Amino acid sequence: MRKGSVFIAALVLAAPLWVGAARAAPTPYDGSWSVSIITDSGSCDRGYRYALHIKDGRISYDDPSFGVSGMVNPRGQVAVTVRYGDQVASGTGRLFSDYGEGVWSGRSPSSQCSGHWEAERRPGVNP
Predict the structure, then answer these.
(1) 58, 66 in Cβ contact below 8 A?
(2) E strands, the chain, in order
(3) What is the pLDDT of residues 34-83, one digit of tens each?
(4) CATH architecture of 5-121
(5) Domain segments of the chain: what residues?
(6) Residue 25 and residue 51 in contact, taking contact as beta carbons nearer than 8 Å
(7) 80 within 8 A of 12, measured Cβ to Cβ
(8) Over the range 9-25, which residues count as b (16 or more CB within 10 Å of their CB) and which as e?
(9) What predicted TM-score, i.e. pTM, was given to this entire model?
């Protein structure tokens, strides 16, 4: 198992922000994003960069071995949870027209980590 690998998502994301958002619809944030995950505390690797996709406000990742569930609401608020084996990470934050930022935290049976994330839109790339 890759050390700290589940912590990628917290990027970029905890679903309580969208209890009332049952329908998925296109958002101004739909498209592909380059997301940097930076560890500020804990024993995880220092950083990662991933290509995440948003379609109809739903966040996805191309590697099916990661369970990514997350949403971006019409105001750009982000909430995401990522699972990889027995590791889990959650993050929250905000997207703007072409960039975003937020915080994350994660845990595995042997460690806990937290940090921040930064995102930038990848122009001309759609999910």
Answers:
(1) no
(2) 31-42, 47-55, 58-61, 67-72, 77-84, 87-95, 99-107, 112-121
(3) 999 999 999 888 998 989 999 999 999 999 999 999 999 999 999 999 99
(4) Beta Barrel (2.40)
(5) 5-121
(6) no
(7) yes
(8) bbbbbeeebeeeeeeee
(9) 0.78
